[in-house]
């Protein structure tokens, strides 16, 4: 019998239809990225990108070779850094200028070094650059949220194969975040506990959906996973802001993230994937967009959503916000735990 | 400058980033459906499907050749028709049995006759079958919503190329519908007018996003379109329930839908697409799931969302519910209007 499960964070029902018994190798793929040509993200091609915003370098000059991680503006930005928002009504509609930031974090000078295969120390540097950019952009009060996300593979939306992450700072708090923030606030106001902490504790007790229970960070398949092999990665103990994560916490995250990426790569044969960081919005920005920030340090809990792109999203999902997942999260967790590294 | 636009129906912001100036033929595609083998939806293969639920026939017996439209249960249903919901909590979680209906409407006995190319009279029959199944399923008070949707092409989630539509009856009102119903109710309570009627009237006055202004039905590119060439099709005058649509209304819809499908097919080179019907939930079912039905006949307005699948949805969209659309809706409408049929 298929089962309907309610996601207490995004307040959405999901259909878990695992009767067809799909296994990790039942998801065919055939899309690939273009190869050949000059890669603008490779070391030595620094002049092919806009001037860098930040980098991890050992003494070399900006926009020269000799870097480990490099941050540049997106050459084709979805949002522009200059200008004012100019909010206006248009009859029944509302609009504003597309002001924001759109950056690319080039994770490595090596075109072929996937994040999964990078040394833990290097992943740690990438994560610290995520944090550095977040802290910097949150100083700009025009920006209400900063989303850090990675598209790996053509089917996941990547247009270049050189390993990179992106970041978009938006002048409004996105809908999905508002939903999560409201769910977390309501739970806290009722129980004076963090919703995420409660769920993580229940998951650790049950164990059936846990993939990796690290000392400081955990990875698990959510109870109401929308997608096969979807994962949720979060600090084990309460922590609301990725921008405030310590170097030590990010090191623990690097260790766990590498293991997650390796298990997924081996179990699912290097699938396309997305991951994205959910953290508190810019609490210094005045506009609240439906959420109250009063208890946010107590009620929200930063986390990473990890989504392998194994299935096509079809009409039903677009039409309803209601997902059909053919793999039970308990099975996904088991497959990933049992993968030999 | 990119622009942020607010969707007053789904209460979501969308980034319109049309600066890259993508034209209708800038969207490459390479996915295809398997060909060869026996198609279970073709005339003569009726025994390869579960027994039919309904059909348009001229005197021939059930599950025999001699039909024009045929409705069958999905052989691999996401939800099952038998059983009780058995709602239960699991610690902090909630679950229920996957009770519902999942049907396939085979639009034609002819494997190669796309809906776009079918005669208007035939499309009218398909639409009347949609309505018939909706009316029938809404008698079952376990079902809160019935979604009618079509996946055309592999990239849109279709697994068989024989023209068909699907229908899923769900025991909860899906999140996207709840959002729309709440927006419509709030607008009505404030203004005593239908939100959709207001928007349609504003669009008809402006004209820039109108694709087809039929006498009874209109097709337009929404102000805050999430996707390139996304369309909204709705009755021009207030009407809340697809289940109550008259034969005459459905005939007008058939005429308009055929023209939309032909324009899209020619302008965008037969792209994969989804369309789906949004109508009132089952007002006879008691559970309200966040929406009040008191004014629903006055505040809601049925419509069809039409989404060509031209771009990949990437990490940013999944992480935020916030879409980046590279084609301004005004341009999409213009391209479609200018397509010569």
Radius of gyration of chain A using CA atoms only: 20 Å
Low-confidence stretches of chain A: none
CATH superfamily of chain A: HIT-like
* Overall helicity of chain A: 25-40%
Distance between the termini of chain A: 34 Å
- Strand content bin of chain A: 15-25%
CATH level 3 topology of chain A: HIT family, subunit A
Number of helices of chain A: 7
Q: What is the C-level CATH assignment of chain A?
A: Alpha Beta
Oligomeric status:
homodimer
- Tell me what the CATH architecture of chain A is: 2-Layer Sandwich
For the biggest β-sheet of chain A, the strand order reads 3-4-7-9-8-13-14-12-11-10
Could you give the count of β-strands of chain A?
15
Largest interface: A-B, 76 and 76 residues
Could you tell me the mean pLDDT of chain A? 89
Structural class of chain A: alpha+beta
Kindly give the count of domains of chain A: 1
**Main sheet characteristics of chain A:** 10 strands, antiparallel
Q: Which shape of chain A, going by the Cα principal axes?
A: globular
